[in-house]
Amino acid sequence: MWTEVTPGWLPWHPNPSEPAFTAPEGAVDAHCHVFGPAAEFPFAPERKYTPVDAGKEQLFALRDHLGLSRNVIVQATCHGSDNSALVDALRASGGRARGVASVTSDVTREELERLHAAGVRGVRFNFVKRLVDAAPTEALETIAAKIAPLGWHVVLYFEAPDLPDLRDFFLSLPVTLVIDHMGRPDVGADPEGPEFTGFLDFVARSGAWVKVSCPERLTRTGPPALDGEQHAYTDVVPFARKVVETFPDRVLWGTDWPHPNLTDHMPDDGLLLDHVPQIAVTPEQRRALLVDNPMRLYWPEE
Ligand SMILES: O=C(O)/C=C(\C=C(/O)C(=O)O)C(=O)O
After folding, report:
1. Ligand 1 centre from 18 Cα, in Å?
2. Ligand 1 atom index nearest CA of 131
3. Could you give the C-alpha distances from 84 to 5, 41, 295, in angstroms and in order?
4. Considering its fold, how many domains does the chain have in total?
């Protein structure tokens, strides 16, 4: 089956640079995806974009190229609630990948146990309107109740302006929360301003974990300016540093490879890893961000 890629979509970077930063032993890419390949794992009919193929082999090759050890593979909306490509990648990882799936409210205990056996440890609730028509609150509450006995968490993807309306619902969920990409703050605003301090208050009140990922999605200053210092995404740095400093034991990082829905700039994954020391400025912060925190959340048995 041939699928036409969404016009304007940029493919993932074919030759990411060698990172200058050496990640600590056992580092985890805690937010990435697999797409297809479509011939084997067709994309969901209800999807709102059609990506290029980006399979497990390329993901694991990037892991090795960056000097990372493990992946947390997050179900992307282009596959809907068909987690086949995700499960296939988890099973091929030799225990070096965990997953976050997408399920519907009628999911059975047997299906959840099958996903758990493959390495899934959470589900994703997506509220980004350009990606999905968000499921009704009741359906999400049903899903949260079904996954709680497995010890799974809920990964939340939302945009900052929507948090005030979603906050009470999130606080009502009986599971651990993990927030994608810092809740997509407006990095043109003041990091000490009401929007981001409101986000930090929500994180404190909910005990949520936060991914300090996707500067390339949030930046207004654009891609890295290779000026010898490799300054990158400087407008995002104050926001990410604030989260790392405030919640050092509940932050995660990921490449977001293969970077869906980018049309004007495709990040070099080597430079994304080189961005980490700008937001986690001490070795202790970097070890927590890249190793201790993701291991505690996804491989607590080790
Ligand atoms: O990959 C990301 O985390 C961000 C995006 C896409 C998805 O999360 C998805 O389709 O599931 C986006 O912002 O377009």
Report:
1. 25
2. 10
3. 20, 7, 24
4. 1
Distance 143 CA to ligand 1 centre (A): 21
pLDDT of residue 203: 98
Task: Using the mean position of ligand 1's atoms as its centre, give its distance from the Cα of residue 228 in Å.
Answer: 31
Enter the DSSP assignment of 73.
E
Position 8 in a domain? no
The verdict on residue 18 lying in a domain is no
Return the SS3 of 53.
coil
Strand runs (DSSP E) across 17-128, as ranges? Answer: 28-32, 70-74, 97-101, 120-126
pLDDT averaged over the chain?
A: 94
Q: Which atom of ligand 1 is nearest to the CA of 124?
A: 11
Q: What is the domain range of residue 185?
A: 28-299
Task: Quick: pLDDT tens for 76-119.
Answer: 999 999 999 999 999 999 999 999 999 999 999 999 999 999 99
- Predicted local confidence at residue 1, as pLDDT: 47
CATH of the domain at 155: 3.20.20.140
What residue has token string 């048995």? 301
Active site residues: 256
Q: Quote the ligand 1 centre to 117 CA distance (angstroms).
A: 25
Q: Give nearest CA residue, ligand 1 atom 9.
A: 76
Residue nearest to atom 7 of ligand 1 (CA): 76
Task: Give per-residue pLDDT as tens, 26-62.
Answer: 999 999 999 999 999 999 999 999 999 999 999 999 9
pTM for the full predicted model: 0.96
Which is the closest atom of ligand 1 to the Cα of 31? 3
Of 229, 233, 227, 230, nearest to 265 by C-alpha is 233
Beta bridge partners of 28: 70
**165 within some domain:** yes
The interface predicted TM-score of the complex, written ipTM, equals 0.96
251 in any annotated domain: yes
CB-CB contact of 272 with 18 (8 Å): no
